[in-house]
Amino acid sequence: MFKKLFNTTIGLALGGGAAKGVAHIGVLKALEDADIEVDYIAGTSVGAMIAALYAFKVDVETIGSLARRLTMSKVTSFKLNKTGFFSTESLRELMLEYVGDVAIEDAAIPLSIVATDINSGEEIILTSGSVVDAVCASAAIPGIYIPVEINGRTLVDGGLVQNVPIEALQTAGAGVTIASHLNSVSHYQEISHVLDVMRNAFEIAVSQHTQDQLKEADLLISMDLSDFSLRDNTERYDELFNIGHQAATVQLTKLAWYKKTNVFLYIGRMMRELAPFKLPEFIRRALNKTGV
């Protein structure tokens, strides 16, 4: 228990959100600007792709240049199948181009990728095996993309079970968890395409349990991106990047204070969890200030 309470390693969870994922790149840049080193990283869907690139030391500028030309059509291959309309083959080729045929366990930053077993409904946290397979599985929206087979399991988008993978970071060993959440409001994009209908339906389905899971984050970077497209934001890259960067910068000031005074705050956390009496007012205010 005490080892866990005083664990100050940083874990970053990047949530799903299709083409809105550009905002995650702004978050990464804000972390670097603040000289905050990420010790663990986890991702779901588009968050899995960006987390994998960053975990294998693809720099933020290169990830950004990739995102500037990334649309849903460029990571989608039409392949009519009884289990879906599109394959993730184009996404696979893109990941191979940038990180190669590498294994998750060889990442420079310990990496976890979340997918869902569509047959059992189980949450699958992938921490070993092919990176490109894992990313493709995590991004395979059910009903749109053909599921991905890994180790005898039929896997689809991890957003069904853990759209912002905080639990995956905790399992990996992170002491302080930062969540980058792309869908902070219950308002969705106006539909103009059948894919918008299906993607909005998917986001609505996962929104409730995501809100419950976000309560586990030590630091939440939450953004209202309802005005942005799920399919193509190449013309609005700078806007999305800046929203992510600004939101993260504001929240990371809390993290700096949190780390400087972590001994007192962890003692406060322990008291809150174990003590049978009400916390002193000055401790309660300190905890509320940092979101602990």
Could you give a quick summary of the protein structure above?
By secondary structure, the chain is an alpha/beta fold.
Total number of β-strand segments? 10
Helix/strand structural class: alpha/beta
* N-to-C CA distance: 17 Å
What order do the helices and strands follow? Answer: HEHEHHEEHEEHEEHHEHEHHH
Number of helices in the DSSP assignment: 12
Most strands sheet:
8 strands, mixed
Query: What does the overall shape look like?
Result: globular
- Specify the helix fraction band: 40-55%
Give the low-pLDDT segments. none
Radius of gyration: 19 Å
Mean pLDDT: 84
- The fraction of residues in strands falls at 15-25%
Question: What would you note in describing this structure?
Answer:
- This protein has 292 residues and is of the alpha/beta class.
- Helix content is 45%, strand content 16%.
- It is built from twelve helices and ten strands.
- The strands form two sheets. Strands 1, 2, 5, 6, 7, 8, 9 and 10 form an eight-stranded mixed β-sheet that branches.
- Helix 2 packs across helix 10 (237-260).
- The two termini are 17 Å apart.
